[in-house]
Amino acid sequence: MARGLTKKQKKTRNRILVALAIFFALEVAEVGFEAFDALPNGLWFEFAAFLVPYLIAGYDVLKKAWHGIVHHQPFDENLLMSIATIGAFALVFFPEAEPHMAEGAAVMLFYQVGELFESYAVGKTRRSIADMMDIAPDYANVMHDGELVEVDPSEVAVGSEIVVKPGERVPLDGVVISGMSQLDTSALTGESVPQVVEEGVTVVSGCVNMTGLITVRTSKPYGESTVQRILELVENASEKKARTENFITRFARYYTPIVVILALVIAIISPLFFGSTWSASVKSALVFLVVSCPCALVISVPLSFFAGIGAASRVGILVKGSSYLETLGAADTIAFDKTGTLTKGTFNVVAVHADEEIDPDLLLSYAAYAEAFSYHPIALSVRESYSGVIDQSKIDHVEERSGQGVYATVDSHQVLVGNDKLMLAEDVPYHDCEIVGTILHVALDGKYIGHIVIADVVKEDAAQAISDLHAAGIKKTVMLTGDKREVADAVAKRIGIDEVRAQLLPQGKVSCVEDLLAEEREGGKLAFVGDGINDAPVLMRADIGIAMGAMGSDAAIEAADIVLMDDKPGNIALAMRIARKTMRIVWQNIVFAIGVKIVIMILALPFIGIATMWLAVFGDVGVAIIAILNSMRCLRVPK
Ligand code: ADP
Ligand code: MG
Fold this sequence. Notes:
Helices cover 51% and strands 17% of the residues. The strands form four sheets. A seven-stranded mixed sheet has the order 10-22-21-20-11-18-19, with helices on both faces. The longest helix is centred in the last third of the chain and has 35 residues, at 570-604. The chain is α+β, with helices and mostly antiparallel strands. The protein has 22 helices and 22 strands. Residues 337, 339-340, 531, 533-535 line the site of magnesium ion (MG). Residues 337, 339-340, 531, 533-535 line the site of magnesium ion.
């Protein structure tokens, strides 16, 4: 425990150790040798002797309690501990009672041990999360007058050329313009397989360059780079508090005063009306005061969420606040977008069916030109399969119709590329294809010229992810897609999705999500997982929006509540397990802490009277330490 203590914590630790040594020496003298009984006025010697470790360990608590009173904010744990311990010492004034000086000193001592442990545990959790998030680059290498100079990444303008040497962190998002290398993306995505990069590949800041020297043209200023966004997100995560967290704060606000009032009532009422002795009732009251401290909950609950969010970020799952972890933990329905989420979104061109007098290559080139500016996975694939160069000066008037396709003027011809909805909307007669697959109809100047059949590939771990989700307690999985019914059904069957809604426009996906929300059972929540391409409105509408493959996609990061840095569906199930585990630990702590405290209070009632001050110390410090240790389990990512 000595490692990682701050100076102040070390000082407190030394003070506690000294006080503990004196305390145990006195205990041995008293219990072992009955040293004090042998002395004349032994009781008062004992009183004075135990005051020494008490004051060494607890003088600052007394001071803080006094400050609280002076500044009219007395109601805190310092005051509670002060009253309880002073009360224990004061029992010496009741001649018929056994003295309780040792317990008074012990309460203070162990209270301080607990406080020290708490601040250590919170600090350790903070640090281990900070370590994981150690992704911020220190400098960027910029060419300046033919020489490489190291500059602050925030000073590098968009469009600058920077050099990233092997072993260095990529400082800014950009595109590789020369060189070849492998990048370690594990700090961002938790993915251990390196990413191979070469000319033309997009790289994001925060990855570590492993093998070769690369030159990158920056595409974003530092403030908007991936690293900066991730850090901001993690830092702000504590602002969106979970309902459980708020509940604990409110609970603590009432719990402490209620128990203190109960203590007063017991101390005064029970000797007057129920004939218990004054010393017995004061003793119960003191036990009440010690267990009235809510710190086990007030510290462990937020710490659990914090650790859970930290664990998630280590595997590339960014949670924007503890409330989202809580909601995800309660989810029982998950809706998925198909393309890019469950499927790779890299379509292979299966066939090009051109009508009679048209050359298939010409058809493909018109399609590639029309798709030149689209970011849709379909567009990328069409461009990929077109071997020629796209001369952008020939393209005009591009218009993307979300969920349908694109319209563009190419070489002064009107080109339409899209699904049957687009053809119907534009009144172009078309015909279907005998191959099952996603069909891209192409029309030239309002006349149908044929279609391209493309097929997407289901992601390798999609089926596993769906069955993991069912195992983790998800009742229903739904796929929402703009693609054809046949294609959607085939994909759903392959990977085990329960329900399919196909041929949806983006706004249709929103209303599907609204239907699902309306069907929701008591307490159940709906999560939606998308890739952020034209599904941002759905991400926002669901109880919880999860964006995947979000490295570099701003819209998705903005709209989602949980961001998966890589695009493996398996991480949805992992996020779910982290959420469930965190919530389980939070509730274990709540039930355990409140339960133990209530039991101790019942045992302390004057007519039962079996709870000692020692038990009360356990009820406060012991419970807090156990709850905190339990919280720290949230740091470990479940398998
Ligand atoms: P998904 O719901 O599967 O992610 P989208 O809503 O993005 O799919 O698109 C639905 C359908 O709209 C696609 O299957 C395709 O037929 C058509 N489409 C969308 N964008 C384009 C585009 N850029 N080019 C051609 N077709 C497109
Ligand atoms: Mg999509």
